[in-house]
Design a protein that fits this description.
By secondary structure, this protein is α+β, with helices and mostly antiparallel strands. The protein has six helices and five strands, in the order H-H-E-H-H-E-E-E-E-H-H. The protein is globular and about 45 Å long. The chain starts with a helix and ends with a helix.
Length: 143
């Protein structure tokens, strides 16, 4: 195994641990905010997702858990990688940050059949997490 292979495996394992160790409520709310941003914007970054999550009642103990959620959204066909910018979050010290392009928008219009955030809302409501469900409803303008 090459050093590059070992580094890649370590990255994958670290992302897996962050995702598995994250609070289940937070995962659902983070997914909803990623989907919301993909519906509203042509391009966004994880900094934008953190802003959307700012007042969420759900929390995670490891902020690295957002990376796997972004990759999950990409595998689901919601977003794709589109370059890099420097982070604006002070805690990130202007580190390079992945830019994501929405695949839910075509020519600036939301593609209606791509409405996947409802799964998140339904799961939160079935779990009895009214506080997180209310947060998602408010942030995603769901009546």
């Amino acid at each position: 195994m090459t050093a590059a292979d070992a580094a890649h495996e370590a990255k994958v394992e670290g992302m897996r641990r962050a995702d598995v160790g994250a609070d289940a409520r937070w995962l659902l709310v983070a997914d909803a905010m990623i989907q919301r941003l993909a519906r509203e914007r042509d391009f966004f970054t994880s900094d934008d997702v953190w802003k959307a999550l700012a007042d969420s009642p759900a929390a995670t103990r490891d902020n690295r858990a957002l990376g796997p959620r972004m990759l999950y959204a990409a595998r689901q066909g919601l977003i794709k990688k589109a370059g890099f910018v420097l982070s604006v979050r002070e805690s990130r010290h202007q580190a390079p940050l992945q830019v994501w392009q929405s695949l839910l928008r075509a020519g600036g219009k939301v593609v209606p059949e791509a409405d996947q955030w409802r799964r998140v809302l339904t799961t939160l409501e079935r779990a009895g997490d009214r506080e997180s469900a209310a947060f998602v409803r408010a942030r995603c303008s769901i009546s």
